[in-house]
Amino acid sequence: MRTLPFTVLFLASSLLAQAKGSVDFQKQILPIFEARCVECHSTAHAGPDGKLKKPKGGVVLDSKEGITGKKGLIVAKNADTSALYVAITLPADDEDRMPPEKKGDPLSKEQAALIKTWIDEGAAFGSWTGKKAEPIAAAKPNDKDGKVGKVSGKPKVDAIVRLQEGVKPIAPATLATFAEGPFTVVSVGDESALLSVSCRGNNDTVDDAMLARLAPIASHICELDLSRTRVSDAGCKEIGQMVRLVNLDLRQTAVGNQGVAALATCKELRSLNLFGTKVGDYGLAALATLKNLEQLYVWQTEVTAAAIVRLRDGIPGLRVVMGPDLPEPMPEGAGGQRRRR
Amino acid sequence: MTLHDLIRGTDVATRRSFLTRMAGSLLGVGAAATFGPAAIARSLYQDPQNPLVLGRASAKHVIYLFMRGGMSHLDTFDPKPGKVTQGPTQAIETRADGVLLGQYFPKLADQMDKACIVSSMTSKQGAHSQAQYLMRTSYELRGTIQHPSLGAWCQHMAGRHNQTLPAHVTIGGGAEMPGAGFFPPEFQPLPIGSAESGLQNVSLPRGVDEERFQRRLKRLSELDQAFAEKHNQRGVQAYAKAYQEAVGLMRSSDLAAFDLGLESASMQAVYGDTPFGNGCLLARRLVEHGVRYVEVMSDGWDTHADNFDRLGDLTPAIDQGLAALIADLDARGLLQKTLIVLVSEFGRTPDIDQDQGRNHYPQAFSALLAGGGVRGGQRYGSTDPEGRQVITEPTTIQDLNATIAYACGLPLDHVLTSPSGRPFKVADKGQPLTALFG
What we know:
The structure holds 2 protein chains of 2 kinds. Chain A is of the alpha/beta class.
């Protein structure tokens, strides 16, 4: 008898719909899609991390264009062959069932019935057209082949090649003073006079005072990795002198707003790693002058999405990474290579 | 290799540079200053006849993931939906338009905008150990010589980033690998048996305090002194240096790089509590601390029978660990300077046999690259519609290794001479796939 109320409801709702002649998409169907589907199935847009978020499986349910554009998703007047209806009525443990198991319960029988009725009646949208696909800042209109997801690296060569023009090499005697550490000072490659500087290990022994040793070569440094050192705001003044700095890694240091503000003079910066630092919105705002900035990492900081939007408005093409797009953990017992305890 | 071989060693120039480098290391002047990419500093020491000039490195680190046994290309990175050779495996769409994966990689699919598939790998070597050797060294296995692996080449040419930590670490396998080959013993990778156990024997034994340990070390050096003076040769020096480095590492805060216990339980869960997942997480920690080259091994890919069931068991750990590694490195700003490479020694037959198995198939197989300057979201090269033959951009194992070396800024035409007097290059005659970058 447990199914009786459902059956009654089911009949009642479909009868009601029949009686009215049609299900109203905007009032009855769209709210279901919005509550249960569009988290994954919406028009490509920039996610909170600034990266392009594409609809899963290419299925878009927040625009008429999207719903009708995917062949077979909705077959008007034939719910049973419509992929959408099939997917929502599969058994809960079927891996193709939508919404997927990890996203919660299946749609209720009433909701499924409503969708079936709507499709069987012709799947009309009324005046609704939904979201328009807009040009997305995060998805850089890509390189020559139109491939998505450019990773930086070699493109910086051009900036470095330009920056090294006319730069005379540092005297070997000066470079020899770095032989005892704590820094490794090397050419950025191809016998360039520009330098790449990192720490030789035991990074927690490197502090602000040691940065003064870089002063004689400051104008030649184009890569500087001070990650996991004890460098703080005070040391950033020294870094601010490095006019050819292209790539700066300050991840997991105590650098905060004051320090980041001191970097505003490094106009050639292309990549700035502030992961796990104490920077916040105030410091971020100071970076607005760095028009060449391409990559900015601010995971595990106080920086807010609003500050990133403001910064990105002023620096076209800037990619800001706020956090990882980590996979869901593995379900218990999955995989034959699980560790045996 | 005997001590005698080591001493007789290489040609004069390499030996001189080696001795300089060795002396430098012992004096606390690291490899980078004497031998590494500091063109200016290095020019004081280097051999004008055979100059080593490093190129610009888009990859400062390499994480090399080896699927031992031969991973089926059709079921993983080069699916052919609808073809008879595909068998029951379904193809899935990914974050990269037009790049399909086998159904076993739903999590990796969400990261494919950052990764690149080379689907036109081809080789002639279809026997496991020979093919694995070729993959790691770029040379055919021979009875008369052992070639260095790519990690050893990296260390030899570009030096260490972190002078306290080893330049080259292997996780989950090691004894059978070529390692340092004919290079001196210091280029041998540090093997970590299992990621969760980390580095063993790095704390003082019970009952031995620092003072007593110092006394022991002093006694050791006294005992060794006469021998070391009499035989002032690099095998002997390398032995002393190994002790010195081990003690240096024991005292370093960088030792924490090996400790997975410092990761949150949720982060460990994201990588997956599997040997491979833990290996990837450890690789990330090592790269964060400046290790140049990390290899993680996954075993069991030799799916002669029940290929599809076996893949169902093998792949979740890889899907989870690799997807987590790509996403996590990216968020830490490390993917842009870390090249992830996933390889297997060969592919598996497009034809499915009566045991639902696939057999060895070197003619066509796939590799995956991500980060380190490689443009994501692309597929390079292609096989025919049934995955039998490479039809565009045939890529040899040497070409793939040349690509890794190129990303690391290693000079591909630089010749190093083996103790037997023969010339070798980092990727033999391989040509880098420069189209993957930028």
